[in-house]
Amino acid sequence: MLKLQNVSGGYTENAIIKDVSFYVQKGELFGILGPNGSGKTTLLKLLSGILPNQRGSIVLKNRLLHHYTPKELAKIMAVLPQLSSQAFSYTVKETVALGRYAHQKGWFRAWGQEDEAIVQQVLEQTNIKSLERKLVQELSGGERQRVFLAQALAQEPEILLLDEPTNHLDLSFQKELLDLLKQWTIQKKLTVISIFHDLNLAGLYCDRLLLLENGEINIDDCPNEVLKEERIKNVYRTEVKKLPHPMVAAPQMVIQPDTGSMKEVVVIDESCLVIQDEWISLKAPSQLRTMSSGVLGAGTGWYQYFVNRHVRKDYQCDDFKNEMASFLKNNGFEPSETVGMMTAVVLEDVSYRLYKGDSFSLFVVVTAGAGNAVDASKGEEHVFSMRSSTINTWLFINGELSEEAFIQSIMTATESKAKVLQDLNIIDKVTNTVATGTSTDSILVAATQQGKKLDFAGTITPLGKLIGKGVYECTKEALQMSRRRFLC
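Above: the chain sequence. Below: its structure as tokens.
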């Protein structure tokens, strides 16, 4: 559709864009990224023909770009520049209708039925039909941007060029605009080439990204390859972290603020723990990085409060998450900042201990009951039910964990817990085999993310050794206390 070969150009003899080559296919949403001064807008002006290229060639539909007349080019390509505060005293419909200029014929440019139909269509598509009689200068920034998008679409272009189209727009319109453009690339095979300031939006919507650095191509590839942590750090010269989007297969980048000098030293130990009849709680001095399977706070996140709530063995609730949130709020805990678990175990039988390693430590808290013990290898023989006699395991690590270490911590803790059940000969009453856990066990791994970097937590790593020992000892002690209470 559009091909650049060894293109250089700019505003003077000193080229801003240097020896750039790439190809954009029909129906592709192609993003252009780069820090300020990297040449993004200059490249877009070269693509649109506003600036002539000094060297190389730009080929549009198998024809050199500079061979097109302005009117011929306007039938193929539309340009949506950055939103300007300047606006003429035209109505919305009149402004959109200007997009039909390239398609009108004759000296008097007669307005035809086709022109009217297309203008009405794009007014509907961009959600500005209700504004058609308003003056453009009276509109908000988001409304005005939609008007100029509609004007560009009224040209019926095959290629749409956009310069930071979501700049200064609120979140809802950013999504609405990009959803619409993505839909058109798929359904109408519209080719979209857009400059993006927001790397995350580019990663979400673009099929391919081109990253500029000092007027040259750093990389031209799929979003996952372009948005690599080290690459973005080097090109943008700032600390970032790459994360997967939670709902779609798209990379996302987050800025890492320099908070080293602002952080107080955090240590989690028994001084943070409060044990009551209705709940056990731990309040951290600041938010901890967590991975958990709690009733609330499941998954990964940052939390400051941790609650293990006692419930009756016959506890049943259709909406247990909201019920748990209400319980927390009524007892002074903010649900959005709390990891919450439930257990039918008597909380007096909790086992906890601090384990010290080389420049890091581990605080383990376990409540355990085995009334609904299950052999995981024979789970299919059980009927599902939400029972509350669980083994709830809390691991608080005074150190900095990698993503691998979080996952490995859970694996090591689970292996150690299963070993306790084996050694205590706790039996799955349905299958009459040794249990590996209970049907509703929960686990929490929380790290201060300060101090020693702990990359791994497998069974024979320094952290893994402490987790294995701590979970084994605390789980065994908690189960033995629960068993004695049951026998009494």
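The two ends are 81 Å apart (CA to CA).
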